[in-house]
Fold this protein.
Amino acid sequence: MSKRVFLVVLDSFGIGEAPDAAAYGDVGTNTLRSISKSQFFNMDNLKKMGFFNIDGVDFLDGVDDPTGGFARLTEISKGKDTTTGHWEMAGINSSTPMPTYPDGFPKEVIDEFEKVTGRGVLCNKPYSGTVVINEYGDEHVKTGKLIVYTSADSVFQIAAHEDVVPVEELYDICRKARKILQGKHGVGRVIARPFIGSGNGNYTRTNRRHDFSLEPTAVTMLDQLKAAGKDVLAIGKINDIFAGKGITDYVYTPGGNPEGIDKTIEWMDRDFDGLCFVNLVDTDMIYGHRNDVDGYAKAIAYYDSKLPEILSKMRDDDILMMTADHGCDPGFTQSTDHSREYVFFVMYGKNVRPGNRGTRSTFADVGATVLDYFDIKPEFAGESMLK
């Protein structure tokens, strides 16, 4: 009988400031607490599994007999971005933070970029992605220069109007940037940000964003699963985060969380032996970064409302695991960036003994737990939470 694990990442769903939050300017952050104050907050199904019984969740009432196993995870890597968080849960400890550029990218990077693309550059500083296209869009359309910007994360973002730079050309430009951005300038992601609009600051981003990640720097649980002949299916931006490494099949979800959830439910009808790894990004991209507490609460409530359908599709040897990659507290008005928080871990299935696994010292315990279920010894530091 084949075994299947469904690992769902609720992107940025933190549950309270990490011990080193002060080093990141994130004292007082708690994504869960912020959304719990919204009138749209509802996590009844996750609550039954033990979500509110997790260490430190002392502001919500837990249950007496949780149906799932659960834990609080501490990030050991230096960083609080998507790539670092996902890589750590798959077994990589990023002891050196990926480079960030609060003053924009250095001249040698921009010069080389302009040389290989044949186009000039606009902006080159940290910016809100929705604001930057409206402030620089008209000049971009007029000159064909590329809008290059960054954020608090380790990212090199390139925005271009789809009528000025066709999307496939923009992707090719990003591949060229990815080759430049290695070594000391090896940012976590180069991101294509296509947009449309009619001018005069009236521009909107399209859903054809694409991420070009660094290749993982060490062996991950995905590599180990694939090497053992297991299937590794990726839904959402997982394939991009791992640069395709260790993945056997994938699908993107431009329709956001609803599409990602529907695709997960659809793929639960597939016969496979291995892992289905899912990222649901809306909580981070649409709500966390925009300080939209109600929107974030609604997105979590929607996922929670779909859980019964997901559980109804589970087979006897299936395990559902859920976690997050970092925080992004929408109620923390001093910032719109990610927050250095503990994240939750909840797992459910007939082969899971319910109960508290305590506070863990690394996200890599997730990868170790997945591998343990397939009787594979992890080639990284992590302890299984199955037993």
